Amino acid sequence: MSKLLKKMANIPHDKLLHFFYGSVLLFVVALFTNEYIGAITLLITAVGKEVRDKVSGKGTPDVWDAVATIIPTLWLLLC
């Protein structure tokens, strides 16, 4: 267990934020619609945000940010 906690402590803060906000967005959309619409919404939002960062030059586009945002969707669909 301590090895897992040490690895989790090395996760960058911005990836944790992407995971958290992805979870919140997925929960809210799935609550009012269903999990599939929530998953599609989250996927479009995650990829769209990274594309916007790239096109606008105002953010730092990172594929791993999108992955961290999408992970809650994978958990929802697998459970």
Characterization of this structure:
With 79 residues, this protein is mainly α. The protein has a domain of 48 residues. Helix 2 packs across helix 3 and helix 2 packs across helix 4. The longest helix is centred in the middle third of the chain and has 22 residues. The radius of gyration is 14 Å and the shape is flat. The two termini are 23 Å apart. The mean pLDDT is 91.
Number of strands: 0
Calculate the mean pLDDT score and round it: 91
Largest sheet, in brief, is: none
**Morphology call:** flat
**Class from secondary-structure proportions:** mainly alpha
What's the total helix number? 4
Q: Which percent range fits the helix content?
A: over 70%
The helix/strand series, from N terminus to C terminus, equals: HHHH
Distance between the termini: 23 Å
Task: Report low-confidence residues grouped into runs of 5 or more.
Answer: none
Radius of gyration, Cα only, in angstroms?
14 Å
Strand percent estimate? under 5%
Entry summary:
The chain is mainly alpha-helical. The protein contains four helices and no strands.
Key phrases:
about 80 residues; about 85% helix; single chain; mainly alpha; 4 helices
Topology diagram in text:
Layout: H1 2-9, H2 13-32, H3 35-56, H4 63-78
